[in-house]
Specification:
Blueprint: H1 22-45, E1 48-52, E2 56-57, E3 64-65, E4 71-72, E5 77-85, H2 87-107, H3 111-141, E6 160-168
Antiparallel strand pairs: 1-5, 2-3, 3-4, 5-6
Helix pairs in contact: 1-2, 1-3, 2-3
Length: 172
């Protein structure tokens, strides 16, 4: 059985059979779907928590121990750092989609040029997503806090943000 015109899949070259502008609409739909999937991935995977309590309570119940195990009267601080995606990364993805659509409207001379603009925007979304996942993973994996009274946290902006909470050991 030979393939006929009706049996073959529709390609971009079969534009006379499609609605005028349909390949561009398909490209726009694809760009929006990639943006939504990227935002969903970042929202779901850019998560992490790090917590510690250096020191503790003395074995006799009177007083506390510092991080080195030495008795102290000062109650040690515990802390938790929670990482979540930054709203800026979602704004960045939206800006990529809107700027690609604006470029298609303003600069595209034909359908192929419009599709190249949309494909480039789609690749930028992929790169931003992969870089965001890598940067935030490195940020939470390299986080080490041994003293909750004085510390600094490298923030992986614009991809993620940290929320730091400290409390005395007796409030755990």
């Amino acid at each position: 059985m030979s393939a006929t015109q009706e049996d073959s899949p529709t390609t971009v070259d079969d534009r006379e059979d499609l609605l005028p502008g349909a390949p561009i609409i398909v490209g726009i739909r694809s760009l929006v779907i990639w943006g939504i999937v990227a935002a969903g991935m970042l929202g779901a995977l850019v998560r992490g928590t790090h917590g510690s309590c250096p020191g503790g309570l003395a074995s006799d119940g009177n007083g506390f121990l510092d991080a080195n195990g030495e008795p102290t009267d000062i109650e040690p601080l515990c802390g938790t750092v929670t990482m979540s995606p930054s709203p800026l990364v979602f704004v960045l993805l939206g800006i990529i989609v809107v700027s690609a659509l604006t470029r298609v409207l303003g600069r595209a001379t034909d359908v192929d040029h419009a599709l190249r603009i949309l494909n480039n925007a789609r690749m930028i979304i992929v790169v931003v997503t992969l870089v965001g996942l890598a940067v935030t993973w490195v940020a939470i994996m390299t986080l080490r806090i041994d003293d909750w009274s004085s510390f600094s946290v490298w923030s992986p902006l614009p991809f993620g943000q940290f929320e730091v909470e400290t409390h005395p050991i007796s409030q755990r």
